[in-house]
Amino acid sequence: MNRSKTIEVSSQPKSLKEEIKLTMKLGWPIIVSNLTQILLPIIDGIMVGSIHSNQLAAASLVVNIVTIPVILCMGLPMALSPLVSAALGKSDFDSPAKLLFNGIIVSGLLSLCLALIFYFGRDLIFHLGQDKEIAEIAQGYFVIIGWRLIPLSLFVVFVQFASGLGLTKFVMILSFIKVPINIFLNYILIFGHFGMPALELLGAGYGTFLTQIITFLVFVVVFLRSQVFDKYRNNLKEALQIRISIMRKIVKIGLPTGLLIALESGAFAFSGIMAGWIGAQQQAAHQIGLYISSLTLMVPLGICAAGTIRIGFNFGKKDWEAINSIGRTTLFLAILVSISFSLFLFFGNEFISRLFISELEVVQLAKMVLLMVAVFQISDAIQTTSSGILRGIQDVKVPAYLSLIAFWIIGIPSAYLFSFQLNWGVSGLWMGLVIGLTSNAILLTSRFFTKVKKESKMELASV
């Protein structure tokens, strides 16, 4: 069997309908995988929020502090999917396993270093101007999250490797098993069942940590034994060698990718810390908004990942006409989905708020926050998708600078202005985020189409 057939992106659609169908065929399993991944902290939030809003506020504080390190651990391996798909576009079938092994080394070292920083820097929690009771609850959870980075980042390496091969349904199945495992372990450890003590927020941390370890080990066993990966284990002895050149390539693409995503997520996280300056109830409501915005983002992010893989394959072939077509279709699909989410959040904000918390004052604040989340859905989908399709053509450095401008020079100062100078409270924080997302959407989309147009002209000139 021709190994290039293992990747769906090799097909050449003849119409817009076929283009959309191909992207969604590759993308919907990634969407499900993304949803299962983001559900883990949301499950933590829902389960500890049922105890008291202080537990949810403490979870919020930790999630906001660790956002940038977590995103770096998840962003670095994201170099693998475009590199693997580009290798297949060049009919290079030996490189994927080499990329996988060296990706494990790079990501493992990064996550271990960050885990040690979390452990020795755990007193940072008490120096962020937060409520003392919230900080005390949060400290142990903070340390556990640090150790959780190791199995999480290694699992993402395998996910990106398999996605680059076009095996997105396979990734979906393995990712999906996380949810029931996590719920079961959280139920035991948070509330104290089957003879275990009720650990509350600490229990949520341990439950999700164990879930990450189990699913990573399952992925390793499947890679070593499944027939799906047989053809990529043919030269396994040669692949299991440290190659500095491959590591550099992964870091060159993965580090700016992680930084780009971290700049956005970090802006959201810092806004969560600012929410804590206003009060614990506002912080809890703000965290509900962060949970939901992260959840809705997973759909356009999955569409974008499919676009990244398909564009990466055509980038290996230097087919700029196909790259342009895929980019436009991917953006169109992401916008369509984001409009539906906006409508859902606009009409369902109270129902969603009550899923997390029963305290009336927090519910009212959360309803207002979710209306702001509804407003920025389109901008968020566009800027996320543009970032992904740029990654497909391995353009990551300039987009990182553009995101720095959009979120930290425009967005966060605007959030501070509206929230604290104009006294808009937690709504002001979200207004600043809307401005930052919209700015980034304009900058990154312009960057993609300008670069594609330039490369297309150069290709025609060379012919």
TrEMBL record:
Any Gene Ontology biological process: monoatomic ion transport
Keyword check for Ribosomal protein: no
Topology within the bilayer: Multi-pass membrane protein
Protein's UniProt name: Multidrug-efflux transporter
GO CC annotations on file: plasma membrane
One Pfam family cited in the UniProt record for this chain: MatE
InterPro entries, A to Z: MATE_fam (IPR002528), MATE_MdtK (IPR050222), MdtK-like (IPR048279)
Protein's cellular compartments: Cell membrane
Chain segments annotated as transmembrane: 26-51, 57-79, 99-120, 140-159, 171-192, 204-224, 253-278, 290-313, 325-347, 362-379, 400-422, 428-449
